[in-house]
């Protein structure tokens, strides 16, 4: 079987295993922990070192990405009437501005959209930065409306899902979600002051 190209950059998974993405002649994406013999492929990023519960990242002084994807972020912020600093905070918290990020649970791209969410939001390629930001911003705007602008609940729902927020009547007691909500809050305030 002849395989075609793929597109990303090389990084290790959290457990040190490399993951390879490639496409067949029919355009079907495949993933493997073994590099294909007869294809052009790329290694992709799995996970997020900064997202671990014991992460040593200090969100109060970590580098900000104030110039990345500015046009797309500002267009979507204006389109959905949401704060561009919040979009930047979510992208930073989700993927560290890596458009090729792929989580262990399958969330993809800058705003870490699950495939079902991406499909529901009408995007074809979650690893395309513009499509991902457009869909992620639309999703974020819907959550902002649903939770009356309460960024804490918006962040919790973005991370753990709306069902978990409803079940626990607030931020779920999941350590990952609690850390995520704190991270987005810090980054949001910092981006507000720096863009």
Protein architecture, described:
- The chain is α+β, with helices and mostly antiparallel strands.
- Helix content is 43%, strand content 10%.
- Strands 1, 2, 3, 4 and 5 form a five-stranded mixed beta sheet that branches.
- Helix 2 (84-95) crosses helix 7 (175-194) and helix 5 crosses helix 6.
- Mean pLDDT is 83; it is low at 1-17.
Q: Gist?
A:
By secondary structure, this protein is an alpha+beta fold. It is 43% helix and 10% strand.
Stretches where pLDDT is under 50 for at least 5 consecutive residues are: 1-17
Count of DSSP E strands?
5
Number of distinct helices: 7
Shape: globular
Let me know the average pLDDT: 83
Order of helices and strands: EEEEHHEHHHHH
What is the CA-based Rg, rounded? 17 Å
Structural class call reads alpha+beta
As a percent range, the share of helical residues equals 40-55%
N- and C-termini, Cα separation: 49 Å
Strand content: 5-15%
Largest sheet: 5 strands, mixed
